[in-house]
Amino acid sequence: MESSAMRETTEIAYQLAWIAVDWGSSNLRAWGLDQHDQVVAQANSDKGMLSLKADEYETELLRLVGDWLPASGQTDVMVCGMAGARQGWLEAAYLPVPTRLDQLSQGAVTPTLRGDQLGVYLLPGLSQTRGTATHFDVMRGEETQLAGLVANTPDFSGLACLPGTHAKWATLEAGSVTQFTTYLTGELYQLLANQSVLKHSVSTPSAARNNLNDPTCREAFTSAVREINEAPELFSSRLFGLRAQDLLDGRLPAGDTRGAVLAARLSGLAIGLELTGACRKCPTDKPIMLIGNQALSQRYTLALNTIGYQTQHMDGDTAVLAGLRLAHHALK
Amino acid sequence: MESSAMRETTEIAYQLAWIAVDWGSSNLRAWGLDQHDQVVAQANSDKGMLSLKADEYETELLRLVGDWLPASGQTDVMVCGMAGARQGWLEAAYLPVPTRLDQLSQGAVTPTLRGDQLGVYLLPGLSQTRGTATHFDVMRGEETQLAGLVANTPDFSGLACLPGTHAKWATLEAGSVTQFTTYLTGELYQLLANQSVLKHSVSTPSAARNNLNDPTCREAFTSAVREINEAPELFSSRLFGLRAQDLLDGRLPAGDTRGAVLAARLSGLAIGLELTGACRKCPTDKPIMLIGNQALSQRYTLALNTIGYQTQHMDGDTAVLAGLRLAHHALK
Question: Mapping DSSP to helix (H, G, I), strand (E, B) and coil, where does residue B155 land?
Fold first, then answer.
């Protein structure tokens, strides 16, 4: 008699049509999809690109999804992210912009596999070279989220923003990326909050993550966005000013709230600088499309609203899956 | 028969009138001065404020200068820097600007000593509170260098810049500091070069220190200063751009020079941002007074010249000593 776990596994294998994978620097996420592109299984691991040598990827992938596979035949695996980087599984060379987002799979590479249960396709990232109005830039992983946006809205034109450690801003025209810019905002925030003189003054990131629900924190955040928007050249002075404020400002609350308020201000300074750069030629009548997790998108929406912009939002995970679906369709 | 070392020690003790000390976060420097304020002895140690508890300062000071002291009587020790910080020997509370730089000793504090060979005076730092055109800020140690500037040029009026980990810009009017601003430039550079994604691309700071002698590095530095001066809001995008340039730019030199060129560019971006903020209301017809070591002052001069400013230079050590002299005179 089959156990319910065995029955579940058998059901997945019966339904499984292909597998979608987002292989990041620090983790790996896989989705099993049926013939209607519906998710029938999901699994994660912490084996990101930084933890793996090139010859370890196949093993880790099979460890994660092996139970889903049918007894015979080959299952396609569409992979986006750092597995296709130079230091990943196999380098999928960047496609230079302008690039149609429904043609990413044209740049896919297939690593040599030891087994034959899987057919693996690593999607390329995007690059941009220096020109009259552009500068060197790269992305890897985010192009698939942008493809997901285009899968939803095939002729999307406008500005898309993917907040994160290395935030990306992309200009899309009729489904192509024409140019893009990366802002070091998230990494800058983490370095300043954890390693600089400011570490004595701002709360830890995990404590700061939800601080915008507090009105004092919210005000500190939005006023910092406004200040930097008016005078971006004062960024590095406003950073030290946080420390001085911690030492001198009798009106700051005491205890944990103090660190949260200063963290909110630091966040507003870093994000405010990014927005001032990214939006400087943007008319305010067209909303900016944010793609990412809810907390970060809400933070960016608050900042963008503060300087006069409206936003739309697409969930980051939804976008990745939709992009991998689009790439899989283009391949087949 | 006296050895020459003993004779030398005896001579110092015979000449010694007072002692000047610059007690920083990471090191301690002491000068023995005669009745004409000429240096007759000098000694350093690596016991900065970060290495000492409050009750260890007297011991360390005596260890360093004990040999200079006469057999009897009390020798004044004028101390500037972090020994007067809250986490130092004894807190010498900040004097709020505007402050006359020839009156710093009015805020000096005297720690309780176990012995009676020394009379120690810890000089205060300066603070600034938030106002219409000012923001919270603090300095500790640099005020004494500014006092040294004023000792040289009693009615100095204009802008003084002290480059460093936490660069200070001070507005002086007739010998007083009326306002000042700290820029996190040096610390920002170090964090980005050593801890961020850029660490893979830029040379180590020690290698980068003298890179401006190379024409390609010089050009990378000055063009970065110009770029940020024109568009400071692009700072966090230009940071990531360094990494992308390392990956994509076929025209970059290979090997060690590559890292040096990118380090020069990073330096230009960070310093350029500071200058854009600090000089935004400054007419170009008045030179800016740089106080600091030669290498850093030359770097700042190159950057300032690039955006249209002239500079004068006062050596940092000369300034500290002159400031401690001025403070000692005011006390006596």
Answer: coil
Residue B203 has pLDDT above 90, yes or no: no
B190 neighbors B149 (Cβ within 8 angstroms) = no
Task: Check if A240 contacts B (Cβ < 8 Å).
Answer: yes
- Alpha-helical (H) ranges within chain B are 4-15, 57-65, 142-152, 185-195, 205-208, 215-230, 235-248, 255-278, 294-306, 316-331
Instruction: Using an 8 Å CB-CB cutoff, list chain B residues near A237.
Output: 135, 181-184, 274, 277-278
Question: Cβ A241–B135 below 8 Å, yes or no?
Answer: yes
Which class would CATH give B141-331?
alpha beta
Q: How far apart are CA B289 and CA B311, in angstroms?
A: 6
pLDDT of residue B80: 98
Residue ranges of chain A that CATH labels 3.30.420.300: 1-94+108-124
State pLDDT tens for residues B6-37. 667 778 898 999 999 999 999 999 999 999 99
Identify which of B136, B191, B233 has the shortest CB distance to residue A232. Answer: B233
Instruction: Give chain B's radius of gyration (CA, Å).
Output: 22
Rounded to two decimals, the ipTM of the complex is 0.90
pTM: 0.92
Q: Where are the alpha helices (DSSP H) in A92-202?
A: 142-152, 185-195
What confidence tens digit (pLDDT) does each residue in A219-246 have? 999 999 999 999 999 999 999 999 999 9
Tally helices (H) and strands (E) across chain B: 10, 14
Instruction: Kindly tell me if the per-residue pLDDT of A140 is higher than 60.
Output: yes
**Average pLDDT of span B221-240:** 96
The answer to whether residue A25 neighbours chain B at the CB level (below 8 Å) is no
B9 has a chain A CB within 8 A of its CB: no
Option in B136, B197, B232 nearest A244 (CB) = B136
Full strand arrangement of the beta sheet holding B99-100: B99-100, B176-183, B167-173, B158-162, B288-292, B311-315
- List the structure tokens of A150: 């285009």
**Which ranges in chain B are annotated with CATH 3.30.420.310?**
141-331
CA dist A213 and A211 (Å) reads: 5
* A312 touching chain B per CB within 8 A: no
Q: Classify domain B1-94+108-124 at the CATH topology level.
A: Nucleotidyltransferase; domain 5 (3.30.420)
